[in-house]
Amino acid sequence: xxxxxxxxxxxxxxxxxxxxxxxxxxxxxxxxxxxxxxxxxxxxxxxxxxxxxxxxxxxxxxxxxxxxxxxxxxxxxxxxxxxxxxxxxxxxxxxxxxxxxxxxxxxxxxxxxxxxxxxxxxxxxxxxxxxxxxxxxxxxxxxxxxxxxxxxxxxx
Amino acid sequence: xxxxxxxxxxxxxxxxxxxxxxxxxxxxxxxxxxxxxxxxxxxxxxxxxxxxxxxxxxxxxxxxxxxxxxxxxxxxxxxxxxxxxxxxxxxxxxxxxxxxxxxxxxxxxxxxxxxxxxxxxxxxxxxxxxxxxxxxxxxxxxxxxxxxxxxxxxxxxxxxxxxxxxxxxxxxxxxxxxxxxxxxxxxxxxxxxxxxxxxxxxxxxxxxxxxxxxxxxxxxxxxxxxxxxxxxxxxxxxxxxxxxxxxxxxxxxxxxxxxxxxxxxxxxxxxxxxxxxxxxxxxxxxxxxxxxxxxxxxxxxxxxxxxxxxxxxxxxxxxxxxxxxxxxxxxxxxxxxxxxxxxxxxxxxxxxxxxxxxxxxxxxxxxxxxxxxxxxxxxxxxxxxxxxxxxxxxxxxxxxxxxxxxxxxxxxxxxxxxxxxxxxxxxxxxxxxxxxxxxxxxxxxxxxxxxxxxxxxxxxxxxxxxxxxxxxxxxxxxxxxxxxxxxxxxxxxxxxxxxxxxxxxxxxxxxxxxxxxxxxxxxxxxxxxxxxxxxxxxxxxxxxxxxxxxxxxxxxxxxxxxxxxxxxxxxxxxxxxxxxxxxxxxxxxxxxxxxxxxxxxxxxxxxxxxxxxxxxxxxxxxxxxxxxxxxxxxxxxxxxxxxxxxxxxxxxxxxxxxxxxxxxxxxxxxxxxxxxxxxxxxxxxxxxxxxxxxxxxxxxxxxxxxxxxxxxxxxxxx
Lengths: 156, 718
Fold this sequence. Notes:
The complex is a heterodimer.
Chain A: E1 2-6, E2 9-13, H1 21-28, E3 47-50, E4 53-56, E5 69-71, H2 73-76, H3 83-90, H4 100-113, H5 119-126, H6 136-150
Parallel strand pairs in A: 1-5
Antiparallel strand pairs in A: 1-2, 3-4, 3-5
Helix pairs in contact in A: 3-6, 4-5
Chain B: H1 12-18, E1 42-44, E2 49-52, E3 57-61, H2 70-82, E4 89-93, H3 115-142, E5 150-152, E6 155-157, E7 163-165, H4 166-174, E8 222-227, E9 235-240, H5 242-245, E10 250-255, E11 260-264, H6 267-276, E12 278-282, H7 291-304, E13 308-309, H8 325-331, E14 334-342, E15 354-359, E16 364-368, H9 373-384, E17 391-395, H10 411-421, E18 425-428, H11 431-436, E19 444-452, E20 458-467, H12 471-474, E21 498-505, H13 520-537, H14 542-549, H15 554-567, E22 577-585, E23 588-599, E24 602-613, H16 620-640, E25 645-646, E26 649-650, E27 668-673, H17 691-703
Parallel strand pairs in B: 3-4, 8-18, 16-17, 20-21, 24-27
Antiparallel strand pairs in B: 1-2, 2-3, 5-6, 6-7, 8-11, 9-12, 10-11, 13-21, 14-19, 15-16, 15-18, 19-20, 22-23, 23-24, 25-26
């Protein structure tokens, strides 16, 4: 039994210690916003925040999570009000949308540590998140836009 | 059919077998995670439209949303004529039904980039009819003439300030006869069509609530993983499941035609147990298959066989049929003979294949992302042992389609597992399962012979294609041997008095499938690479050479002229080089210019300029994103796409050895849509084909090296 906090709620999980956090979230807690893409930390679809930092949940075993705090896309905001979510909506970033939870969580983590990222900063932080629909140019624009929103510039 | 791509004209025969009329669920299927469709008090005005007493307006969308925007574009067609705002619309996925057949594809199929083209008149008419019925109901209620009433913003208004909402009228309207004579709006009156309106599916895709097949939850649901033969076409000779069954949570191990399935309480348990199975595989007929064998076969088949001429086929434009290319080649001053080789490519959708099945004694429900609702129904029915009409197909959002979800190979095992354990089962393929058991884009060997006269004018151009047929396997009822094989080149746009087009069908032992843009991509590569080679042979600028060959074709010429302007053709930035490619396909004209540099053998793609004439746009914002999408998808394949086999096994297993484009590798993209009031063309696949030849033509400009095969990464550029 491992006890951790997910989106502010304490959860006790009874599963094999090697179960990746991804499957704990999806199968045990029914938080399906976090996606399975590769299982090897290659694609970023499973990105969540662990104690505030973007991590790949597909390779994090449950046994390593005792007492940790996890935030998933469902917990990023209650009402799509996080700056990244607002920017994503404003620019209609998603196409199929499958990778976008991971993209947004990676972007939110970047903005947390770097409120005015450059293109190079975005490249470095988001290179691990694959999008097969090719929404990359809008992701880049949306991160810049989210940074603006965080600075209080809400004019379109 | 010369104006439409022959594409996937499939399912006519098989669709008839499903029989039955329009099947409408009494409770609407929900677009889960998005706005829920009205479930109570709704009146149905036609196959697509339901209006609730609460004034909710729900549209059943009969094409699958895989990112291309049909959940926004198709409702916009109805809403335009219905006189309601798009933002009010709730979406639900349509069930299987005859009303939902795509007339251009001959089945309930999302493919061939024709969703908007096919729905253009049909759904606008449906919206207009519903509006007229609502007006007629109001006129009856108020005892006035319908001509004295109008409709605006979800309300009917009449004389003396009378007004009623659609919700108040829907019940009465639904009982009226459907009007036959309908006048559709003029383009100048469009409120929604042609406007960059927000996508209806975006909100659910930024908060995790959008439901993909992988996300389906049913009470009492179990999870399954599958072990499939490592060699494609092989099967399990013996299975020792002792160790697997001893693991926690494991409920059942069963052999199916698709592989050995493990059912457990959670997916991770199922996967671990799957990995603990001891299976002896019978490798099957492909145990000797590798890429050297495939290419040796294709080269031998091409050398041994002149191929079947497509000139007798209706698919080929009449203007191409007059001359004699082989005779004309003898008199040419300069000739080109080039073999272009296109590799096997994987779809690699972000969401691996999965299906959730719930089999009961007298019915079966399947939940999945699919591009083919009828084929899914048939596949599930076969596995469940039920008649097709007892199978309900619940289409979720698709985590990428790209043609992979035109296949139903992952459906039967989920159904068999649910039937065996008597509970709902979600079967998930791992990424490795997905990568190694795709229906890959087939390899193609494309040989161009062409001739120029002493003035550098094109006098003959001939293409000899050798490769497997997708359609012959996918739809045996389709007897057109050229179906999908000769796409684009059947409408070869360049003026040439002597043209030839031949095909040698050669199967390679493994099944191959439709992949985004299908044969447009290899054919565009052969055409546009060869035209570039011919321009060089004629010592002409590649743009000028094309413009001369397209003289009099205003739409084609305009696209090329605009792409030249926007890319500053002929004047790349210092140290950079440009390449051009053009295509006419999906009833659109598209051109792309790649601006690249090669330094110390390292290729960098700086910028892609893309110009399209795709007729009237329904939503230019979505068109733009689809073109960006096509370019990125096409670049991944051009740079790295190469599935290789060894002993019948696919060697690539995940994104570490099957490389795709990442954000830090994205070139600058400049997309421009030429305004047009023409028939809406396809945009989902159109951006893909030109990018590979544009980049390779730029590489030629930079290095003098002509790449006649893909992927680019396999070549040394230093």
